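Posting for a labmate who doesn't have an account.
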Amino acid sequence: MKVLVVGASGATGRHLVNQLLLRKNKVKIIVRSKENLPEGWHNNTSLEIITASILELGTNELMNHTAGCDAVVSCLGHNISFKGMFGKPRKLVTEATMLLCDAIKKQQPQRPVKYVLMNTSGNSNRDLNESISLAQKCVIALLRLLLPPHADNEQAADYLRTQIGKGDRYIEWVAVRPDGLVNEDEVSNYELYPSPIRSAIFDSGKVSRINVGHFMAELINDHKLWNKWKGQMPVIYASD
């Protein structure tokens, strides 16, 4: 499998890249800087590092980077700082998803490319009748209004749901919704659900970043697992 990853320098993206390499995938990553990347990545012949800002790449460049890829994964997110939360680009995740999907569709691949979006359990899957309390709806509405990253996550997933849909000829997708990200060193047991089983605001669970990376790598490499979740927004929790 050949996989393109954007957001690979982030805390979860690093785990995803390592999990893909463990599975002998050929991996390409687009990062703004090579600084602070794991030392072993620089000499890994299965990993190609492209230095660029994803939103500044032209269509032809993105078509070149996605050419021949079996899967594209976005682990993009906003830095937890004032500039990261409120500065530009406010729609990093959405715009990157739109640009990458457009590049894929223009190539008209013979087989659908798998697009995996790392999202959040605080975002509802509006294809399903997910039960959300009035209090949580109010908090989410405030987050949508006051915190651009939350609206960005919602819009990126909505683009996949409504513009790509479930019957696209060139792209299949899964939006992974982790709950309460924490750091751990080893892969452990985790559980997957089509919808949240607890409140993301008032009773959030947790899951390790390495487990999220493991699940996304499994999605890409396991045909049966992909067919189970494609066109959906699975929520991932650590096992009790």
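Reply:
Got it, the structure tokens are right above this. Residues 196 and 213 are 19 Å apart (CA to CA).
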